[in-house]
Amino acid sequence: MLIVRNATLPDGRSSIDVLTDAGRITAIGANLPVPAGAEMIEADGQLLSPPFVDAHFHMDATLSHGLPRVNVSGTLLEGIALWGELKPQLTQAALVERALQYCDWAVAKGLLAIRTHVDVCDARLLAVEALLHVKAVVAPWLDLQLVAFPQDGLLRAPGALANLKRALDLGVDVVGGIPHFERTMAAGAESVRILCELAAERGLRVDLHCDETDDPLSRHIETLAFHTQRLGLHGRVTGSHLTSMHSMDNYYVSKLLPLIAEAQVHAIANPLINITLQGRHDSYPKRRGMTRVPELMAAGVNVAFGHDCVLDPWYSLGCADMLEVAHMGLHVAQMTSTAQMRACFDAVTVNAAKVMGLSDYGLEVGKAADFVLLQARDPVEAIRLRATRLVVVRRGQVVARTPATTAALSLPGRPQTVDWTLRR
Ligand code: FE2
User: I want to staple 268 with a disulfide (CB 3.0 to 4.6 A). Which of 240, 255, 296, 392 is the partner?
Assistant: First the structure.
């Protein structure tokens, strides 16, 4: 049994206690009685949030930075080529070790659910087997969801469709794809049809890398929304990246947004990665290349932010900090009103959980006792500070702690711990 006393919740409720028993939340309210023998965490008014969720990641590539060399141009296409050079050298032991190290980082940062794409274009399916193993090993600490991802193109790479089906047979959860990397627009559209039908047949979710390009005429998201609607896959399909939307004609977007909303297709923006990968063929002005996040949200589309990459062929930084992701997303999308900043916090928590279909997620009675206590008073402050994760709890057990910053001036009457809050 564990009780968190005097917390503030993301919705603004304050002086709240959260009681857990046998791994589940059993009560939420003010001044709850402390059961005998319960472990107590004094929140002291700090923010208690459901855990961070990363709905778009590549765990098979993570922590491979510099192997066999670094991406010089900084483009998506050099990253794909570099990953192709590394693939034949991969071993299962190295894949598992790097993934487990990343999961350590994730838990320390309160990131307790990750959807990771897994490249299925290597006929050995080494990465698939490695990550299925990692998924089982880390299950007590975090939820891993795997996407069968044909990195080199479902139709362009020989054997990719057969490999993808084999990966699903082995237990991979979600159907992936990359229509903008097929040889032609028509082949891209055909890959979307095949993948959606495969998901419908097997009762699975879909998450496609979709229109990750600066080309304003890359419109696979339209095809994805169409097949989602046609096959009745509402709520089970995600378009990842969608960066071409940044460059599309505004009139066309005004037609497209309601179609995405009607099909209940989720959208994932990956701000850290797309602000660095996109616009590389531009001179000045340079496009940001992130999808239209506030406009998608205003149209009623569920939008999450993903990390996408950490220390891999596409991105040389990162540490599993979803608040860093939210911070960048807020800036790139110019989401600076209070409501929009809060929406950026939702994009790395509740919205991402919705993408993954995590039914046990949330600070509610009866849900899994998973949460993170932040050294911040509210979601906006959490983003501003990339707040310290004071305590991370999984199924009612403390799984990580980080001490609060102590660097206060030694003056009488001043607190020992640094107070980051703006007080008026
Ligand atoms: Fe990606």
Answer: 240
